[in-house]
Amino acid sequence: MERPPLAIHGGKPVRPSPLPYGRHLIDEDDIQAVVQTLRSDWITTGPKVPEFEEAVASYVGARYGVAFSSGTAALHGAALAAGLGPGDEAITTPLTFCATANCLLYVGARPVFADIAPETMNVDPEQVAKKITPRTKAVLPVDYGGHPAELDAVRSLAEQRGLIVIEDAAHALGAEYKSRRVGGISHLTVFSFHPVKHITTGEGGMVTTNDAQLARRLRLFRNHGIDLEARERQRQVSGQWYYEMTELGYNLRLSDIGCALGLSQLRKLPANLARRREIARRYAGALAKSPGVRLPAERAEAKSAWHLYPIRLEPGRFTAGRKEIFQALRAENIEVNVHYIPVHLHPYYRQRFGYQGGEYPVAEDCYQRLITLPLFPGMTDQDVNDVIQALDKVLTAHLK
Ligand SMILES: *Cc1c(COP(=O)(O)O)cnc(C)c1O
User: Fold this and answer.
1) pLDDT confidence bin for 370, thresholds 50/70/90
2) Does the pLDDT value for residue 236 go beyond 90?
3) CATH number of the domain that residue 309 is part of
4) N or C: which end of the chain has fewer CB within 10 A?
């Protein structure tokens, strides 16, 4: 049978306009929520901040939520609250966005990477155990793609060795591990509200915790190191203007404008998660028999939040490499992506820590083969079919 020529060779693309890999979903009620706040007395640090914090904390099953100006700021705040500093090491995965490791550098601590497990591409607890030294103070598992990391194994390692767990759940709002939502499991859990994530505040993030002391420190570092409790205590004595700065903090605050949007977005999270799951199910059904493609796994004890749909091309099955297949899909107007370039391979990490490649063979091998398919709740069934059709077209053309 005559096959249509690939768009990269001058053929007609599968769809006329580009389909992004991720996109926010803003409805009229989201816009109205923001407008209401703009018309109110408070546009930053007013009533919407605690309202949003309580709503997210309650949704994930944590006692406290502390909002930050971005997921990266939330990671920074978590590293500060955990007391990480110069001389400390913390262990994380190389297959993540660089912010997970960068937050450690912000506080003067050293990021140490541990290789991933091939099934979920999450950090392998056995590899973490091998990297623990007397200087290790924290572990930062990432719920890659929305699939919870091996949180029990990480937690028990942390308990044995006195480490704090900072879970990077930027992909995993709404994900479940052993029937519990991520956010109330680790000592500190970090979420991002960047527009490609599950809900958005424009820019924004949050740390959730069950520990009152950690929550207090998160609030302190978010707001210049100003101790609000001391202020309340001392105001009667010292005067109404009084406040105390007790630590070197920052301005990492999220505004009421952002929190108003976040509150409105949060109401739609269950529908958003259901749609993501449905799209993942459609991909799995359509691609199950595609030769040379490994689909993302969902372990029995986990429920992924399906932030990403990362497929892996099996080596030796295609006449072209990942790069050519990626470019051919882009030419079909499917804006596939790659998550992630392993952090230790970035020039900054190579130069500063002497990485040369080859240190984390599983993560590096996955990186060579990964392609992220579009997945976001606003995708129509036609969009999903376009991805499936483009993948079939491009992969069949390159199958050995
Ligand atoms: C998005 C993301 C972050 C950073 O969040 P921002 O809100 O963009 O600062 C951190 N870690 C991971 C794994 C992410 O995907």
Assistant:
1) very high
2) no
3) 3.90.1150.10
4) N
- The average pLDDT across 11-24 equals 97
Instruction: Indicate whether 180 and 273 sit together in one domain.
Output: no
**Could you report the per-residue pLDDT of 65-95, keeping only the tens digit for each?**
999 999 999 999 999 999 999 999 999 999 9
Sheet holding 89-92, edge to edge: 64-68, 205-209, 188-192, 164-168, 136-140, 89-92, 110-113
18 in a structural domain: no
Given this model, what pLDDT does residue 231 score? 73
Pocket test for ligand 1, best of 76, 147, 194, 261 (most atoms within 8 A of CB): 194
The verdict on the CB of residue 100 being under 6 Å from ligand 1 is yes
Nearest to 377 by CA among 26, 15, 14, 18: 26
Quick check: CB of 99 below 6 Å from ligand 1? yes
Same domain assignment for residues 244 and 285: no
pLDDT digit string, tens, across residues 265-283: 999 999 999 999 999 999 9
| Arithmetic mean of pLDDT, 165-178 | 98
Q: Domain for residue 22, yes or no?
A: no
pLDDT score recorded for residue 2: 67
Name the residue of 21, 192, 198 to mutate for ligand 1: max ligand atoms within 8 A of Cβ. 192
387 contacts: CB under 8 Å, gap ≥ 6 = 19, 283, 334, 373, 374
Q: Assess whether the C-beta atom of 258 lies below 6 angstroms from ligand 1.
A: no
